[in-house]
Amino acid sequence: MPYSDDLTMQMLSLQKASLQKISEIVSRPEEDEDNLTEQQLLLSAQPTAMFLLDDAGRIRRVAGAWEQVTGIHPEDAVGIPMASLLRLPNTRYPEGLLTQQGSCDEAMLRSQLGPRRVRVVWSRSGRFVAGHLEQLDVSARNTYAADLALQQVTEELDEAVYCLGMSLDSWQSSHVERMVGLATRLAEALAFTAEQVKAVRWGAALHDVGKSRVPPEILWKNGPLTPDEFEVMLHHPVWGLEIVEKMSFLPADVPAAVLHHHERYDGNGYPAGLAGENIPLTARIVAIADVFDALTSVRSYKPAWSYQAATEHMIAGAGTQFDPWLVRVFVLDVLGFQHLKPRLDALLPN
Predict the structure, then answer these.
(1) Whole-structure pTM value
(2) Which of 31, 106, 207, 320 lies at 20 to 30 Å from 177 by C-alpha?
(3) Could you give all domains of the chain from N- to C-terminal order, each with its CATH number?
(4) Which positions are catalytic?
């Protein structure tokens, strides 16, 4: 009997342990349900529109103030590509929210409440992207609207300046278009800021605007100019300055380029006879683009030169007509003639 009692006690002990485990297992769903409810309550109290995306950018879940921010019922949002609702600047985030992580105050939300600017913050974890949207306050929206209007005005102003520089005639407009491209590429190769590049672009576009005051019979004469006619032509940079200096919105480097783009590095140019680095940098850049395009274009008094011949002319004029450092950058980085690097390096002072 002792043996039987011991066995009975062991069985009862095992049964008790099993019941305890079963009780724990049964209670877990209730605890998880309570925790889930608390989690839902916590998320619903958040002031931002929270979202979870799959690896294709589709909305899997939303929470927080989703409906208040977007105007879309949470059930209607599931399965929608987030890119159909939210637009990010392509220049900053070309892959949108599928990048690893980021934040952007310039996102545009297309919602049932109308388009609006919002702030979006997101982060990728494995196959999913979690983030939130929040409305910007009134002052931030007003600032964004003002910035957008200013950007539009700047773009229209840039186009107006460009058109003004090409208004002389069809040949001149083609010349201006080409040399603006060359001058801009040179400025970018020099790692100029956006504002500095714009000054070069505008200076190149307006460099010959003073020729509008040159009599047509001199400007388009098919043959060599007389000394008196040449003297009139030499005055076009000054006339150009008189025109552009009234445009108060132009950066100071633009009028300087218009006035001094015919100066020479050795001081034998016009109208002021400036030399070396006393010539404004924008004017030195415009001069290189102007001469190179003139050499490689057909004119009434000459055929077009090849790029190779024009490049040899630019190298020969480095240190006399042109800034040698700018010639080096122009030939290597704009024209791409890397095989000339040893010759160009030899032009520079030690």
Answers:
(1) 0.57
(2) 320
(3) 49-136 (3.30.450.20), 154-347 (1.10.3210.10)
(4) 211
